Amino acid sequence: MDRQKKIKGQTYALTLFIVGISIIAYGCPRFSDLLVYDRQNILCGELWRLLTAPFVHFSLSHMFWDILLFGSAGFAIGAAGYRGFWLVCIFAIIIPSLIFLITLPELERYGGLSGLATGGVAYFCLCSALKTRKKRLLWLAILVGMGAKIVAETTLNAPLFVKTSSIPFRVLPSVHIFGYLGALAAIIWNWPNIRLTEAGLKPRPLARREVTFS
């Protein structure tokens, strides 16, 4: 029970931290300029931007939808006690920035929690679908709907819900895909415990050489 509370507390803390930094960044343009993915500044040595880019948003609508989805997913994962949310976040933060830096030289600026939000929702739905057969079709339907949204935004080359500000920006569907991949990575990492929970058994204690992350 104590371990479950610890997992929940860490998940809530991580969610609140990311949401809080995002709100502060949007309210402080100078702080936002220090965090945003800026290719030229990164190549000049400001490597922290590879990690902080998701905390920057380019319109109020952009931030609202990202925080709504990410925050809801984070608290739902925490309430359910699912381990591994930190892995989803790390994957969705680091991988897109590195890939963009290497493969998209034309991309000058990038920001937003879209990848983390997609990964969080996908991870919750996958864990819930694997944990029990109850409502499994609902969780799978949500995953399919999210995939359809990505396809639609790719086809239209425009966001479906986010309203742009005076600063023009375009959707990067690959960010959402990396979110999905982060969720899958966390599922694979946590698979033994998910299977045991589904079978109604207690998770196995880790071997002596293994380290517990939550």
How would you describe this structure to a colleague?
This protein is mainly alpha-helical and 214 residues long. It has one domain (2-198): Rhomboid-like fold (Up-down Bundle). The protein has helices at residues 2-27, 29-35, 39-43, 49-52, 60-80, 85-103, 114-131, 136-156, 173-189, 191-198, and strands spanning 37-38, 109-110. It is globular, with a radius of gyration of 18 Å. The chain starts with a helix and ends in a 16-residue tail after the last helix.
Write the layout of secondary structure elements.
Layout: H1 2-27, H2 29-35, E1 37-38, H3 39-43, H4 49-52, H5 60-80, H6 85-103, E2 109-110, H7 114-131, H8 136-156, H9 173-189, H10 191-198
Antiparallel strand pairs: 1-2
Helix pairs in contact: 1-2, 1-5, 5-7, 6-7, 6-9, 7-8, 7-9
* DSSP E strands, number: 2
Overall residue-averaged pLDDT value: 84
Structural class by SSE content: mainly alpha
How many strands, which pairing sense, and closed or not: the largest β-sheet? 2 strands, antiparallel
Within the largest sheet, what's the order of strands? 1-2
Helix content: 55-70%
Number of domains: 1
**Using only CA atoms, what is the Rg?**
18 Å
If you consult CATH, what is the topology?
Answer: Rhomboid-like fold
CATH superfamily: Rhomboid-like
SSE series: HHEHHHHEHHHH
Unreliable stretches covering 5 or more consecutive residues:
204-214
State the assembly state of the protein chains: single chain
- End-to-end Cα distance, whole Å, is 14 Å
Which overall shape is indicated by the principal axes computed on the Cα atoms? globular
Strand content: under 5%
Annotation field: number of helices? 10
Task: Give the C-level CATH assignment.
Answer: Mainly Alpha
Second-tier CATH architecture:
Up-down Bundle
